[in-house]
Amino acid sequence: MNPTYDFTERVAFVTGAGSGMGLATARAFAEAGAAVTLTDVNADALTSAETELRDAGHRVLAVGCDVADENQVAAAVARTVETFGRLDMAYNNAGIQSPTTDAADEPAEVFDRVNAINLRGIWASMKHELAQMRVQGSGAIVNCSSLGGLVGLPGRGAYHASKHGVIGLTRSAAIEYAPRGIRINAICPGTIETPMVTQMFDSGDLDRAEAAANQPINRLGTAEEMAAAVLWLCSPAAGFVVGVALPVDGGYTAI
Question: What is the per-residue DSSP string for 208-241?
Fold first, then answer.
């Protein structure tokens, strides 16, 4: 059983909220009483997520947003503040994977696209979230890195570069903003049962049994387990936690 939190009168902002870890986290924030802005580039997934949460009686705002476009990110944060009056918590989750590629063969456009979403997208999200939070003098941000931000693996140079970069952004901004009452941390998920990972299984880019066996806990993680980590980092229970890159990986990085 997960801890319960009271985020009544708080406002959360989640990127990539249409499915997977983003949707699970948005749902968890809402169930804890927060008003939640859902953003996603996939219009159908975003509509489905909005309908689910609204039908459950939660306060939600859905905004289409490609995090690779800073202007769209800025507009999404601005609409959040216009609608709910403030911004207290953010989970910067939107990201993509790319097929395994020999480092000598990786096209520049693939590297640029992965980093535009996974790294610059988090940079843009955090930038505009912080602009509001520093006015308030409070807030908590969790960025989604990966076990790929802590280790290297053959064939995944672009993805791992982006996720290592997220940790650097997180730590630097955390040090800068901790004195202003804003805590910034990152989670580093292992292999999690999400639509993105399922797509990798289906394409043959990743083997399900091998992925589970590579995690000492001997199973894949769930989106709800990642949401639980995010909510804890945003809660007063983690009030003295600043600038961490928290592995939530079933023991993968402990090997």
Answer: HHHHHHTSTTSS-EEHHHHHHHHHHHHSGGGTT-
